[in-house]
Amino acid sequence: YRWVGFANHSQGKWGEALKAYEACHDAFATDAIICTEMAECYENLKDYSKSFKVYKMALELQANDENLQAKVKELEALIVE
Asked: How far is CA 1 from CA 15, 36, 38, 45, in A?
């Protein structure tokens, strides 16, 4: 499922990618890349609250990642508005 998710993610098929990522998420829950890709899918599907939640999970796994820090702040601002 991880590779099916990645293939669909690469093609911008956000819904299909998300289905695959969700199917394998438990096995990869500590993988910041999977979390980031899932969060991108939610964001592109305009589900900002779920995207924020999953980006925060990725940030917990990679606390020093400046891109993740920025994305969490960006989405937090969208949710508040």
From this structure: 14, 16, 13, 20
